[in-house]
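Subject: Sanity check before I submit

Could someone independently write out the structure tokens for this chain? I want to compare against mine line by line before I put it in a report. The sequence has 307 residues.
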Amino acid sequence: GGLSDSDLVLTYGAEKKWAQFQELETITRGDYLLFNTVFDVPVAFVCARLVDIFDSQGHKKGEEYTFLPDLGDALEFVYNAAGFALNRSPFFEALKAEPLKFLHRRPKVKEWLVAQRLKGRRLLLVSNSDVDFAEFVMQVSLGEEWRSLFDLSVFFARKGRGFFELPPEETPFITLPNYPDPHNVPIKLGMATNSTGGKLNERGEAAVKVLLNGCYVQGHYSLISEEILGCAAERAVYFGDHITSDIVVTRKRSPWHAFAIIEEANSNFFSSSSPSSTVGVADDNIEWVAEGEGVGSLWGSFFRCTL
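---
Independent answer below. Compare away.
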């Protein structure tokens, strides 16, 4: 659903602009509840339904809605990272029961990653997910040997709070005594322990040095040497799908370049009327969506990848 054009004008005025939008650049955490990724769509839907329910029960316009604390508690229960190992989260249990119902295998992405390594480019995985959940998703998406695609794997990175934001001395890389498996036995899909029963998420000591092909939690981008990056920090490129914790903080807090992965850009809305021309390395299948009509006039310039 959504508001009709007439309702949009009635609610936001002829220019259809929300008066408080500019405040979002200066707010502190907690002033607004933002839905800015695909992952937030279910939560946005629940909030919209709750607003409808409250309104149907006599909630007056301008009064504060009181459901957010309860919604926060519900989300904490469903999405808390500890729920994967505890087998108590409806979200994680549904994923583990039918992984291919919710996750896609990505053979083309895997081929592209292999191609980058063959060209001598170093690849790093930096995820906010904890070890057990990240292992599960990566196994389903890229296969059991997915770690061989990366030169460094970082979990529970806290990209919006630690990896880019805090001083490096406050967020060192932490070792993982039980991951990868000490006997090189593949982690069973959906398990939170290795072949000896060790918990994948168990933390060890702070790493004295970040090693090539290592696996860690937390950390700070500046502690990753150019030897591991394979280039100067100013030439490193970061790909992410979260506008704030991936793209904004990368550009504001680090010398790395940032590219946004926006799956919606593959829709007809973005591509049907927009002229494009191939740029860069042809075998990387990167297209340039030019500014001008269509997407350019609304959102600016985009690279579109055929992967």
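---
OP: Matches mine. For the report I'm noting this point. The two ends are 30 Å apart (CA to CA).
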